Amino acid sequence: MRIALGVAGGIAAYKACEVVRGLISSGADVQVIMTANAQRFVTPLTLQALSHRKVWTDPWDLTDDEVIRHVDLARDLAALVVAPATANVLAKLAHGIADDFLSTFHLAVTAPVVVAPAMNTRMWLHPATREAVATLRARGVTIVDPEDGPLAERESGVGRLADPARIVAATLAAAGRSAALRGRKIVVAAGPTREAIDPVRFLSNASSGKMGYAIAEAAARRGATVVLISGPVALAPPHGVTVIGVESAREMRAAVLRERAGAHAVFMVAAVSDYAPRASAGKIKKSGGPLTLVLDEGPDILAELGASKGTEILVGFAAETDDVLGNAAAKLASKNADFIVANDVLAPGLGIGSDRNAVTILDRAGGAHALAPAAKGEIAEAILDRVLRA
User: Fold this and answer.
1) How far apart are CA 131 and CA 176, in angstroms?
2) d(Cα 177, Cα 259) in Å, to the nearest integer?
3) 205 is known as an active-site residue
4) What pTM was computed for the model?
5) Which domains, ranges and CATH numbers included, belong to the chain?
6) Which of 205, 327, 336, 357 is an active site residue?
7) 362, 325 in Cβ contact below 8 A?
């Protein structure tokens, strides 16, 4: 198991030595990467002696061979942990800035990422830092929150680097997930569908696709071969995921039924239109009066998957506005799914279009596992933990 440790330039950099020791004692092979400022606090030689590997600091160092080092090191990586992570490094990671070895390497990593911030309390509470942390959490990054206690500035407050044992435990947990789904195919349907009214108009819904994309990305980080069947959304394709774009419910049905072959699990996160209008061949003109649309019931993809379910795990989603758990339980039974993930779309700041969510996972044995409000990346990881036990 190969783990990369990024060390940033803060007074807590000396504790990276303990993190290296903890990871190595747990059987990991540790590759250390240091920023220029980190070298002002602890020498590369110290971390090289502890890790028994060359410490990388310079993206232009090609002395050994001519490989693109930051890309080569990212291959077959179980996890990247950055400890300590300064406010500067947090901002770089959150916004994709690549101006040194560590930040450039981070962009090449598709394995799980763990970040352990350390800084003065004022810096930790600054809106820019809070925004960077929220962005990383939403992306599925594990944040090992700093602790409360004495700081280097002869102050006391939140900002101390977490205990190295906590950092090691979080890193090993993330690394364990990185290969948990290796060799397994995961199919995720996400986003809305569009049903044509005429050549220029359509019926749709407000689904952003964020929850489905988060699940697809989380599954890919665990080593799965992921096929994401996506309705029209304004989201970038996740790292390492095959994306199949569709428009209508019928197109989504065809793609899901085709891709389910050999799948370990199918996640029907998509907000599929229940009804579709009988489309006009030409653009409908104003007539000076009301317009009547005839809507026909569309395909029920989840029910069709449930009716012909084999060994794959089938997970449905229920976006409800009232009697959330009751309606979700009824859907679980009627669709023959293994799990239903229920959420209240009217909850303020959660659900459709939001970066956060709060859900309850219902299973066929009658269990109900509630997940507290969190970034959708965190919710996705928790759903995979619960549903796939991986």
Assistant:
1) 28
2) 24
3) yes
4) 0.77
5) 2-178 (3.40.50.1950), 185-388 (3.40.50.10300)
6) 205
7) yes
